[in-house]
Design goal:
about 110 residues; Rossmann fold
């Protein structure tokens, strides 16, 4: 699965997903660190990537525009240090991928 990680999440999340067999880049890796939400949305859509974000605006947009890509993984965990975040992603990752593979366009991670 291909993921684009938003600026509000650490670059380490992209590396962590890569280590688990997924394609993943952080917005800073593709010159989108300071890009608008629209530019990030279009980049994910154009690359066929799932956008992973903590930004509720993307989740709201996904609800308001219910058809078509990009799928959104909305990380609703509180702010925490990167190692803790990665540890908290271990359990939900298989279910998250399953839901995305079946076509869900908005998946929440709590």
């Amino acid at each position: 699965m291909r993921f684009l990680i938003d600026a509000n999440l650490p670059r380490a999340l992209a590396r962590w997903l890569q280590a688990r067999g997924h394609e993943a880049v952080h917005v800073s890796d593709v010159d989108l660190l300071d890009a608008s939400d629209d530019a990030i949305w279009e980049a994910a859509k154009g690359e066929g990537a799932v956008l992973v974000t903590k930004d509720g605006d993307f989740a709201a947009r996904r609800i308001l525009e219910p058809d078509g890509p990009p799928p959104i993984v909305w990380v609703r965990l509180p702010n925490m240090r990167t190692p803790w975040l990665l540890a908290r992603m271990v359990e939900p990752l298989p279910r998250m991928v399953e839901l995305l593979e079946r076509g869900d366009l908005l998946v929440e991670v709590r």
